Amino acid sequence: NVGPSLNSNMSSIVTVQVGQAGNQMGFEFLDTVARSANNCGGHAAVDVQGLHQHFEEGKDGTWTARAVAVDMEHKVIANIVKKAARGGIWSYHSDSGHAGARGAGNNWARGYGGDGPDAGPPVLELVRKQVERCDTVGGLVLQMSVAGGTGSGVGTRLTELLRDDYPRECIMNQIVWPYASGEVIVQNYNAVLSLSRLSKASDGVLLIENDAMHDICSRKVGMKNISTDEINREIARHLAGFLCPAHTVTPNDTGGAVVSEHCDGGLPDLLQTLCPHPDYKLLMVQSIPQMADTHRDFANYHWPSLLKTSRQMLTTGWPCQEGLNWRKPSGVRPTVECNTAIANVLTLRGSAIADAPVADFPPDDFYVEWSPVHSRCRGSPFRLVGHDKSATVVSNSSRVWKPIEHCTSRAWGTFASRAFLHQYEKYGTTEDDFVDAFVQAERLIKSYRELR
Predict the structure, then answer these.
(1) Higher pLDDT, 187 or 8
(2) Per-residue pLDDT tens over the stretch 373-410
(3) Is the pLDDT of residue 9 over 60?
(4) This model's pTM is above 0.90
(5) Quick one: which H or E segment has residue 350?
(6) Residue pair 407/68 in contact by the 8 Å Cβ criterion
(7) Degrees (nearest 5) of the Cα angle 274, 205, 389?
(8) How far apart are CA 280 and CA 298, in angstroms?
(9) b/e per residue, 276-287, with b = 16+ CB within 10 A?
(10) Which of 294, 325, 366, 367 is deepest in the core (most CB within 10 A)?
C-alpha cells in the first residue's frame, strides 16, 4: 500500500529505454523508484508524487510505467516485462514495447542508418501515446549504452527524431560510457559517433562511467567479479536520487536549511540550471552513501559528514565514497588537478533535512565566473532505497573530459589504421562522418579541459 492518491499537476517524465543495457537500466530505475516509494513510510504525499511522475495510476490502484522499451531483439523486452509483473508493484503498458527482427551487431552505423529509421515511426507513435497519457509532460529521458549498436545507433537516431517531433520539450540522455579496458572491439567508434550527435540534439547528456559504477560495487561488497544486475542497480540509485521529485531547499541564518512546501520545477528547471550554455551539456552524477544493503540498517549518517564527503568527491572528481583523497584542499580555487564546475544540483533525501548545512556547498570560487546560477539544493523526505539519509550531486564540470579523451584517442588510433571502416560505410557512415565526430569530440574535450 503506497498511501492515498494525490491529485497533483506535477509534470511527468516519459522514459525511453533503448537496447539491452538501456532496457535493463530502465527496469532497475523504475523498480528502484517504485520500491523506494512503497517502503517510504510516513511520507505518503511525497511518495505518491514520485510515483505519479514516472507511473500512471489505474482506476484499480495499479501503477503502470510511463516508459517505452525499444530493442532489436524481442527477448530483452519480454524479460523486463515479466520481471516487472513478477514484482507485483508496477508493470509496463501492454503497448509500450517495440522489437526489431535482428540485432544491430555492435555497429553504430547499422543502428543509426538501418534499424533506427525503421524503428522511428512505430517508436514515435508509442511515445506519443505515453505523452498523451500525461496531464503535463516534464521531459523525455532516453536510457542507453553507447558501447554497442542498438543503444548507441538507434538511441542516437531516436533522440534526433524526438527532438524534431518535440522541439519544445526537455530531452535528457542518460548514457553509459564503455569500460576503458573494452567490452566491444568497436566501442570507441560507437561512443564517439553517439556523443558527437547527442551533444547537439539533447538538452543534457548524463554520462555514467561503467568503470566508476563497477568500482563502487566492488568496494561495497568487497568482490572484483560484479554482475551486470548489480551495476544496473547502482546506476538506478544514482539516477533516482536526481530524477525523483524534491522541494527547493535554501540555507537559513542558523547553519541549517529551509525546505519549501512545493516541489521545484522538475527536469526542465534542473537542466536550465545545469546547462546554461549550449556548448556545455555534459553531466556526471555522484551519490552517497555507498554501502551494501546488508549494512544499511547498521549505518548512522549525519548531514554534516555526508555533505563534507560529497563536497570532497565533487572537488576531486572522485566518484567513490571509499578511497577518497582528503589531502587535496576543498576550500580553495581549483587547480589543474581538481575539478571545476559550471553548475551543480545537490539533492538530499531522508530525515531531518532542516539540519543540513547547505550554505557553502561548494564555495563560489569552485565555479566558473560566467555561470548565472552556480548551485541549487533540493530535498525530500522520500527515502532512497531505505537509506535514512542520502545525497546525490549532478554536476556539469571539467571531470567529464577525461573518459571522453581516453575513448576518442583510442578511436582515432583505430580510425588512422582504417580498421572496421568498411562495416560502417556499408550502412552509410562515411569517413567524413567520422572526421566530423572526432572534431566535435575534440571540441568538447578542449572546452571542458580548459574550464576555469
Answers:
(1) 187
(2) 999 999 998 888 888 999 999 999 999 999 999 999 99
(3) no
(4) yes
(5) strand 341-350
(6) no
(7) 60
(8) 41
(9) eeeebbbbbbbb
(10) 366
Ranges of H-type helices in 88-180: 108-109, 116-132, 155-165
- The pairs formed by 362-366 with CB atoms below 8 angstroms and a separation of 24 or more are 362/311, 362/314, 362/315, 362/330, 362/331, 363/331, 365/332, 365/333, 366/314, 366/315, 366/333, 366/334, 366/339, 366/340, 366/341
Exposed e or buried b per residue across 38-75, where buried means at least 16 C-beta atoms within 10 angstroms of its C-beta: bebeebbebbbbbbbbbbbeeeeeebbbbbbbbbbbee
Q: How confident is the model at residue 104 (pLDDT cuts 50, 70, 90)?
A: low
Reported as a single tens digit per residue, the pLDDT across 414-432 is 999 999 999 999 999 999 9
Higher pLDDT residue, 339 or 171?
171
Please name which of 295, 276, 314 lies closest in space to residue 394, comparing C-alpha atoms. 314
pLDDT in tens, 296-347: 777 788 999 999 999 999 998 999 988 888 875 545 544 436 789 999 999 9
138: its cell numbers: 516534464
> To the nearest 10°, the Cα dihedral for 231, 27, 72, 215?
-10
One-letter amino acid at 93 equals H
Strands of the 341-350 sheet, one edge to the other: 97-99, 67-71, 12-18, 137-145, 171-177, 204-209, 282-288, 389-397, 341-350, 375-380, 247-251, 257-263
Predicted pLDDT at 365 = 81
Q: Interhelix angle for 74-87 vs 19-38, to 10°?
A: 10
- The cell for 230 is 548489480
| Residue type at position 50 | G
Question: CA-to-CA distance for 351 and 382, rounded, in angstroms?
Answer: 9
Report the percentage of the chain scoring pLDDT > 70. Answer: 93
Q: Taking the CA of residue 341 as centre, how many other CA atoms within 13 Å lie in the half-sphere pointing to its CB?
A: 30
Cell of 336: 589543474
Instruction: Give the list of residues 6+ apart from residue 200 with CB closer than 8 angstroms, or none.
Output: 440
CA atoms of 131 and 388, how far apart (whole Å): 34
- Which three-class secondary structure state does DSSP give residue 73? coil
User: Which one-letter amino acid corresponds to residue 385?
Assistant: V
